[in-house]
Design a protein that fits this description.
With 147 residues, the protein is of the alpha+beta class. The protein contains 3 helices and 7 strands; from the N terminus they run E-E-E-E-H-E-E-E-H-H. Strands 4-3-2-1-7-6-5 form a 7-stranded antiparallel sheet, with helices on both faces.
Length: 147
């Protein structure tokens, strides 16, 4: 079997951090999708400096974002849902993150998130993720300590 080609899709986003008092702060972040890990999406929050030492990375299922475009999705550490505006539509998507060190609520522009997802669909359509997993390599990792 031929190994699938490896592609990385990345986009920069301006998010809004929603504070407990309702105030918002702009946050720079990037979304990344790699065909070598077709079920996952990474969001990297750039927390001040220009290097990777000042970045916080979260990884979660692409399907969670897809589901969260239309309805509340996720349990526990990562939750996603549409944020209705005054016209009962949704121009942003909420992303709630919870860790032992705290909780954060972000708003992501819906159009930018949707455009990113469409780019991932071009590389790995929904339902075809398994065709991009190198099962031999994954089995070697799983079984290397068993030999």
């Amino acid at each position: 079997m031929t190994a699938p080609r490896h592609t990385r899709i990345r986009t920069q986003l301006g998010l809004r951090l929603v504070l407990p008092d309702g105030a918002v702060l702009p946050v720079s972040a990037s979304l990344e999708y790699e065909t070598s890990d077709p079920y996952a999406v990474q969001v990297t929050f750039h927390t001040g400096g220009g290097d990777d030492d000042c970045a916080v990375v979260w990884t979660f299922a692409r399907q969670l974002i897809i589901d969260g475009l239309d309805r509340p999705a996720g349990l526990g550490d990562v939750r996603v849902w549409p944020v209705p505006d005054d016209h009962h539509s949704s121009t942003s998507i909420a992303l709630a993150l919870c860790s032992p060190s705290g909780e954060a609520l972000f708003e992501i522009p819906r159009d930018a998130l949707t455009a990113f997802l469409y780019r991932t669909y071009d590389e790995v359509p929904i339902g075809f993720e398994d065709r991009h997993v190198d099962m031999d390599a994954e089995l070697k990792v799983l079984l290397r300590d068993c030999v």
